[in-house]
């Protein structure tokens, strides 16, 4: 069963409050999502493996550590996932970026795939799939299906706000994928929106509606 980590760091919680606030405009919303992306990346990379190397400081030779292990790729679920990419790249600038395009059919709430482009060396990479919202879970489950179909084996999922039903759907479909969230909300409303949530993440990020 995939583990669920809720990041209760005060800075993440503070910024999430203003992301949720309906009076926060597009520019500030985008900046805050970017900042929370960076803070969550800091937490999510806690278990990254290190290796020891030898360098020369101005004083003497020293054995010290650098990151080792798998190469990373960040995969936003289009559109809203794009808002978290730059924030993650600030901490992991060497990561490759793949894209999975999905939209949720407003009638059926089922995800419809329209684009998938991943780095070539899929099997050797560790993937972090990002999307601000995990509602019914359909989009995240489908995005990770798309990655696995192409050979991805090591996947984490990171989002801002999740509904319990979405977490359950992910754990059932992808028990090997750990889920990293900033908040676990109460439920979904009749239109499949997270309550209290933050509204439509794509529309708020890009100023559409
Ligand atoms: C939103 C959000 C997720 C999805 C979550 O995208 O960014 O991808 O809904 O809902 P689910 O868990 O019920 O699948 P949306 O379909 O609105 O597309 P957009 O990002 O292009 O606006
Ligand atoms: N997609 C969103 O953008 N917001 C929700 O609350 C649910 C799905």
TrEMBL record:
Chain positions recorded as uracil binding sites: 194, 199-201
EC number: 2.4.2.9
Catalytically driven reaction(s): UMP + diphosphate = 5-phospho-alpha-D-ribose 1-diphosphate + uracil
An MF annotation (GO) of this entry: magnesium ion binding
Keyword field contains Glycosyltransferase: yes
Biological pathway: Pyrimidine metabolism; UMP biosynthesis via salvage pathway; UMP from uracil: step 1/1
Annotated Phosphoribosyltransferase domain residues: 6-208
Keywords: Allosteric enzyme, Glycosyltransferase, GTP-binding, Magnesium, Nucleotide-binding, Transferase
Necessary cofactors: Mg(2+)
InterPro entries, per the entry: PRTase-like (IPR029057), PRTase_dom (IPR000836), Upp_B (IPR034332), UPRT (IPR005765), UPRTase/APRTase (IPR050054)
Keyword NADP: no
Binding residue positions for 5-phospho-alpha-D-ribose 1-diphosphate: 79, 104, 131-139, 200
GO cellular component, one term: cytoplasm
Activity regulation (record text): Allosterically activated by GTP.
GO biological process: UMP salvage; uracil salvage
Cross-referenced Gene3D superfamilies: 3.40.50.2020
Cofactor binding note of this UniProt entry: Binds 1 Mg(2+) ion per subunit. The magnesium is bound as Mg-PRPP.
Pfam families, per database record: UPRTase
Family: Belongs to the UPRTase family.
Summary of the function given for this chain in its UniProt record: Catalyzes the conversion of uracil and 5-phospho-alpha-D-ribose 1-diphosphate (PRPP) to UMP and diphosphate.
The name this protein goes by in its record: Uracil phosphoribosyltransferase
Native organism: Ureibacillus acetophenoni
Chain's gene name: upp
